[in-house]
Amino acid sequence: MTKTAGRPRSFDRDAALEKALVAFWRDGYEATSIAALTGAMGIRPPSLYAAFGDKRTLFSEAIRRYQETYGAATTRALREEPTGRAAIERVLTRAAADYTDPAHPPGCLIITAATNCADPDVVEELRGHREASKRAIGERVADDVRAGRLPAGTDVTALATYYAAVIQGMSRQAQDGASREDLERVAALAMRAYDA
Question: What Rg value do the Cα atoms of the chain yield, rounded?
Answer without folding.
Answer: 19
